[in-house]
Write a structure and sequence with these properties.
This protein is an alpha/beta fold. It has 5 helices and 11 strands, in the order E-E-E-E-E-H-E-E-H-E-H-E-H-E-H-E.
Length: 226
Amino acid sequence: MAAPELAARLERVVDHGAETRAFFLRLPAPLVFRPGQFISCLLPVGEERLIRPYSIASSPEEGDCLELVVDRVPGGPGSHYLFGLQIGATLRFTGPWGTFTLDRAPAGEAVFIADGTGIAPIRPMLRRALASAPTHPLRLLHAGDGRAPPLYHEELLQLARTNPAFTLDHVESRTLLREVCRRWIESDTDRTRHFFICGVGLIVPTLRDSLRQAGYARRAVQYEKW
């Protein structure tokens, strides 16, 4: 059976630099989803109907408004279509989908690793973890190109200021693997941490494999690769 299609109206956009844009979609009714899930957008491009998955950057508690964060990909028909949408346009999609989720703070130290727009699904996961009275540290390592402030920089800084359990660090994407190895593989023998990794390209499976080969349990290293 085909998944039911839903429709949303593009209410507003916010640019995060020249090639990254947040899309705010208004729904006729709240969408029930878990922090970390994505929707599959159905994009009429030419004579085709492209299917493109985009993680939900907003929280389930925000009701009938979804936020998506999209990088414009050179030569990418899906992202170029989205960047060309006008306010008020209708966007059709299916979902929510995905098992890269977090409903409450883990029973142990949790490390979130986001490369660029990989912060999108991690943002609602962090919010949910912090709202569930964590008893163990929550850490975010957010990587970027260093040319602009990271996505949601001020919001995440405020969360770190007001939540003693949460710490935030930024690194450049080119040093991400080295930093992860230094902090959580070479510095100690503790292998009880939980990891949530999201980003674009080979860095995600590289980080996953490095952590698992270092002794972290397979189920303790969750990831989403775009």
